[in-house]
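To assess whether ligand presence alters the predicted conformation, the chain was also submitted together with PXG. Input:
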Amino acid sequence: MSGAQGTAKWRALDSAHFLHPFTNHKDLHEKGARIIERAEGVYLWDSDGNKILDAMAGLWCVNVGYGREELAEAAYRQIQKLPYYNTFFQSAHPPVVELSTLLAQVTPTGLNHVFLTNSGSEANDTVVRMARYYWACLGQPDKQTIISRHNAYHGSTVAAASLGGMPAMHVQGGLPIPGIVHINQPYWYREGGDTAPEEFGKQVAQELEQKIAELGEHNVAAFIAEPIQGAGGVIVPPDSYWPEICAICRRHQILLVADEVICGFGRTGKWFGSDYYGIQPDLMPIAKGLSSGYLPIGGVMVADHVARVIIEEGGEFAHGMTYSGHPVACAVAVANIRILRDEGIIDNVRDNTGPYLQKSWRELAVHPLVGEARAVGFLGALDLVADKATRKQFDPAGQTGILCRDISIRLGLIMRAVGDTMIISPPLVMSREEIDELIMLATSALDETLAAVQGKNDSRGAVS
Ligand code: PXG
């Protein structure tokens, strides 16, 4: 069944049975879900046959684009040969060893070990346990507290949501768990006021040092941050931020955790956000682009000096999942990394399509609705404002973003709204022509949004 009838059937069954993540179900049941049936390259097709340009790469993950036969074949071959075996009890299999070796090659220098998980959330749960375990192995069991940032996103399990700094997540389920505290984020446009960006970057980084002093260095295990905050609104820190953070972590002997779940595997035009900013992390969670989302897999890259302690000083690290190092997911991740490497996809983002996208995207700053347009690699954000001169936000906050998102999707472009910030994270294989289409559609979405907020147009892009 296809077309309107098919859509109605899928929507009815979806409403009847499926509980969606991060969704207000009452709203969804009134509207009905968008049913995506297939995809190719950078395009999706919904059950009504609409073709949609996916400027979010699924959920920041389909880095090599949709429809890569090599990945389907890698999965098929591995399922035939060995669909599952565990990596507990002193077992391994070729795909997990191959992936671990390949990861040691493509990740920053000194990160030559990996602990594998099934998602970014599990990777960050692993970070919490491993960082604390590391210090315990070194005879410093009080070094337990992990410092994170307000408005960070590190996942949705209990520990990962606690690391995250999203108030809406913390109020549900009594989070954060003990031993996790937050400092401010380096969001200059919304929080920097009259302070120059570089000065602001330094100031917020120095909050880390203040927090360490307040807690006592002997109680702090680690600091965790995304090189560029993704789900928080593609927040690009001022250049002064990361060097200061790195220096503080070294000065005080606390582990530096760079959450590369979004920034990893080419998103910034370098293999990792840590390469982009010159960060040398001690632990580095990865997921999403690791398999381009074709199968669920995540992990934590572990620096040699941390791995040495766990291997030589520890006994058994009592942590792991049935599917840690799942052979089929590993085989797909290996094939995916080879595509990224052998086709020069990341270099192309760095040298060709990335600069092209960034230039066009930044030009959207002339639009009356756009306060700031920022972009790095294949990540972009537009902060929508009611008044450009004062950076005044819309009241109520968030509705204009949702309006713009709904208009955008109706026009055939998946752009995501974080409050009143529009964000993109396209597949890394997007061509210049497809970028032109993205910019054209985003411009139309902004124009229609402006007309709607000015009340000139009874837009069909209803607020959800
Ligand atoms: N770290 C970061 C930096 C992430 O962005 C996770 C960890 C957790 O990964 P898993 O695989 O457990 O989802 C993420 C995930 C959004 C959105 O709305 C972003 C994520 C997940 C779901 C929604 O932007 N990022």
